[in-house]
Design goal:
alpha+beta, six-stranded mixed β-sheet, disordered N terminus, Deoxyribonuclease I, Chain A
Length: 348
Amino acid sequence: MSDVNQPSYEVPLPTVKIASFNLLNYLEPPMAYYDFQNIYTMEQWHKKQAWITRFLDKNRPDIIGFQEVFSSESLQSLLEKAGYPYYAVIDSPTVIDDFIYRSPVVAIASKFPITEVAAITADQQAAAILGLTDFHFSRKPLRATIDIPHIGLTDCYVTHFKSKRSLFDDPLPDTIVPTNTALSRFASQRLGSWGSALLRGTEANLLLLAILKQREASTHPMLLMGDFNDEISSSCLEQLIAGNVFGMSDSDIERLIGYYRLYDSWNLFTHNTEQVDLPRPPTHYFGAKTSVLDYILLSQEFNAQYLGSLFEVSDYHTENKHLINSSFDEDGYSTDHAIPCVTLSLRM
C-alpha cells in the first residue's frame, strides 16, 4: 500500500545537449601551427587536453561540433576516453615543410550513432549564377546524420566560415593606385575586408542551399553549428535564419516555408522561457569589443512554437569562465571562444 504522504516528483524529460566548440589551434607537438615557432610544449599540450576534458565532464554535451582541428586522431582518442564513441572528420589540414600546419578542419563527436558522413561541396551552377566560377569553401563544412533518441535520424552540420581578416595583405598593384602609399594600404584593406565578407556570405548561402536540398531529399530534422566569424544579424549571414519570401502571403510562408527554415537556438530559448529581454552572452572578446560568433541553428522540430515539434530549447548556456574570470593555471591553454551549449528537452 502506498504512503499517501510520500512527496511526489516529476520525472525529468529526456534531454539532448548540443555544443559548438572552437578548439583554437588544436595541434599536438612537435608540430607547429602557422609558423615554425608556434609549438606547444608537452606541458602546455597536456594542460590544453585537460581543459577540454574538464569542459566535457562539466557540461556533458551529447553532440559537439568542433572547429580548428589540426590533430584529428588525438582529438578522437581524447573523446573516446570521455565517452564519445562516434566521431567524424571529412578533411585534413594543409602541411608545409612536414611540420607546419595550416587550414584546420571541422569535426563532430557524438554519444549517439553516426549513420552517414559527407563533405558539403558548393553547387557550382548556383555559384555561377552569383558570378563566381569554381567556388570552394575556405573550410569544408561537414554533415553527419545522427540517430538521436526520440527524434531519429537528424542531419547535423558543422561549419567554420571565412574570417574577417582581409582577403589579401599585399598593397594594391600600381595600376590601381600608387604602391607603397597610405592610400594603397587603406584601399587594399577596404577591398580585402569586403572580399572576406563576400566570401563569408557566399559560403553561408551556398551551405544553406545544400542544407535545403538535403532537407528535401531526406526529410530529416536538421541543426547547424559552428564558428560563423560574424554576427548572424550581419548582411553576410542574415539569410541563414530568414523566413520571408517576397510575394508570398504570411499564411503561405508559415505553411510552406517553416519546414525549411533554420532558427537561432538563442531566440528559441528566450521565447520559450519568456526571457526575450535577456542579454545574449558574447562568445568572443577582442579588447573592449564583444561579439557573438558561435551559433547553433535548429529546424522547426526543435521550435516549441511549431505544434508538431518534438523537442524544445529548455536551456542555453555559454561556457565563458575561461574568458571573463580566468585562471592561467587552468585556462591558459583553453580557447579564445566561449562555447555555446543548448539543451533540448523532449516535449510531452
